[in-house]
């Protein structure tokens, strides 16, 4: 049998006071309204002994907030790396006094619509629309009527919702600069072709990383020495692309892999060819997957700041809900702004000077 919920009336009856007096004491206004210390002590003692818990939802609705947020994702919670994004969001919500509800769509628009409706039915104060991999997508019309932040997602059309994404362009620039500063002038690409549009379809990361790389090389009067487009950024494709690279350029000196899974295949192919990293070939990559540290030597990789992405998205959302009173000052910004978070380099010795 379930235990009956203790009410404010129960506390008042046990303490021998009115419900109004009990409410004022438990809301911290007892001294302000000159309720005697003895009465306040009785109310607090009764509340503690009965195990009274205020109805947060009712209180929130009276104040116009439920102190809850919704997170609607595709498959963001299924991977270890993206799990850090959820962790950052949960911790930020907790630190700012909010609870986070999470729902996954598995990419089904009908489930997404149902989740958004369900969260709005439960009076969440705002919603984060989230993707596992950075992508461009339409924002459901229903989210234009509720405080919304896009997490790891860019809008396909103008929207009121700000977005939080990794700064992939800056990471591409930094990857090219890392190799140029080491003296490399011929830089090969694994995962994307040499041309500005030679990336897999629907990959924001691919487009932006390539943009940054080409920008820095062009400023030095250079272009990629070769590029090898991979439709799937996985180890087998990295291995195949690197063997094709070696067929055309038997002694490459520097390679940029477009993610760490490709780098895993590149390492295998280079070692099969008798080439040593970094003595013969410098390799740099992106994402900072766990395998980046498992490789020997570990691959120097630009990390996606998953936890910081989740935290910043919550700060922005609460800033929109509260007008900035409970979020960090730099979180408050104009509608539709794209916030790009830096991708720090995790150097592991896979790059050597020429």
CATH-level-4 superfamily name of the largest domain: Response regulator
CATH architecture of the largest domain: 3-Layer(aba) Sandwich
Specify the structural class: alpha/beta
> Which strands sit side by side, in order, in the main sheet?
2-1-3-4-5-11
CATH topology heading of the largest domain: Rossmann fold
Q: How many structural domains can be distinguished in the coordinates?
A: 3
Query: Quick one: overall form?
Result: elongated
Regions with little confidence, pLDDT below 50 for 5+ residues = 325-332
* CATH class descriptor name of the largest domain: Alpha Beta
Helix content: 40-55%
Question: Your description of this structure?
Answer:
It is a single chain. The strands form two sheets. This protein has a six-stranded parallel sheet with strand order 2-1-3-4-5-11, sandwiched between helices. The chain is built from twelve helices and twelve strands. Helix 1 crosses helix 2 and helix 1 crosses helix 3. Helix 10 links the parallel strand 8 and strand 9. With 354 residues, the protein is an alpha/beta fold. It has three domains: 47 residues, Orthogonal Bundle (434 Repressor (Amino-terminal Domain)); 136 residues, 3-Layer(aba) Sandwich (Rossmann fold), CATH 3.40.50.2300; 137 residues, Rossmann fold, CATH 3.40.50.2300.
